[in-house]
Design brief:
The chain is an alpha/beta fold. It is 43% helix and 16% strand. The chain contains nine helices and seven strands.
Length: 242
């Protein structure tokens, strides 16, 4: 089965790893073992050092043609975020922008958040939003409605939020779901396919935080058709990256 891994973690602290290591060489071994076409990385370091974390991730991206990156931006640093976007989002190795809604105070439907998102429209790249609470789920849905010319992806960070997100996003056609292996059982994938359709579900392993074997089981063992499985594992992401 062809695979595109839409979310891998790079630069996280050793004590948080479920793997023994998550270096560039480990990433290449993982890509070879699963025969991945593309791996998309997000910088954990950028959560504390926006410029430095993205710069270190860019160094990783240069080491393998299969590697792509999510450019981490922050609604709390609008000037720097706009600068980084202009410098990087025209380059093919960066697939889109990522914002962490770690707390309710990070919700994107604020003046700063909407200002940055509107500035990203010119690049035509997707935007990845983490969702950590009902408030940040509402914020993600609100910005997707407000800027319906852009493609948004939400990554819920709990099982209950994943279940709540599926019906909430049903009518928001520019909003896709990237479930985390930490929180999504196979029945959730089947529920998502039934509710929002197979074209709006994406797959990522959370490599660097989770064992990718469990992530593969999330789609391989799910009660969905072979066509839906192929779409979620590869084709949806492939279309997104074009």
């Amino acid at each position: 089965m062809a695979l595109i891994d839409l979310i891998c973690h790079y630069g996280i602290q050793q004590e948080t790893l479920s793997l023994n290591s998550a270096s560039a060489e480990d990433a290449k071994v993982y890509a070879d073992r699963l025969k991945l076409d593309i791996l998309c990385f997000i910088s954990s370091e950028a959560a504390l050092d926006l410029a430095g974390g993205n710069a270190h991730l860019q160094q990783l991206l240069a080491t393998d043609k299969r590697f792509r990156g999510w450019l981490t931006l922050s609604q709390h640093q609008p000037d720097l975020s706009t600068k980084l976007a202009h410098e990087n989002l025209t380059k093919p190795q960066w697939i889109g922008a990522a914002f962490s809604q770690s707390t309710d105070g990070d919700a994107m439907n604020t003046e700063n958040g909407l200002e940055i998102l509107n500035s990203l429209r010119r690049f035509g790249r997707p935007v990845l939003l983490t969702v950590t609470s009902p408030h940040t789920l509402e914020a993600a849905i609100a910005v997707a409605k407000a800027i319906n010319q852009m493609r948004f992806i939400i990554a819920p960070q709990s099982a209950s939020l994943t279940s709540n997100a599926i019906p909430a996003m049903k009518s928001i056609l520019n909003l896709s779901l990237l479930p985390s292996v930490q929180f999504a059982e196979r029945d959730v994938i089947a529920e998502a396919v039934e509710t929002i359709g197979e074209r709006r579900i994406l797959w990522g392993s959370d490599w660097g935080l989770c064992n990718p074997t469990a992530a593969l089981g999330m789609i391989k063992d799910s009660a969905i058709t072979a066509s839906a499985r192929e779409r979620i594992a590869f084709r949806n992401a492939n279309e997104l990256l074009k």
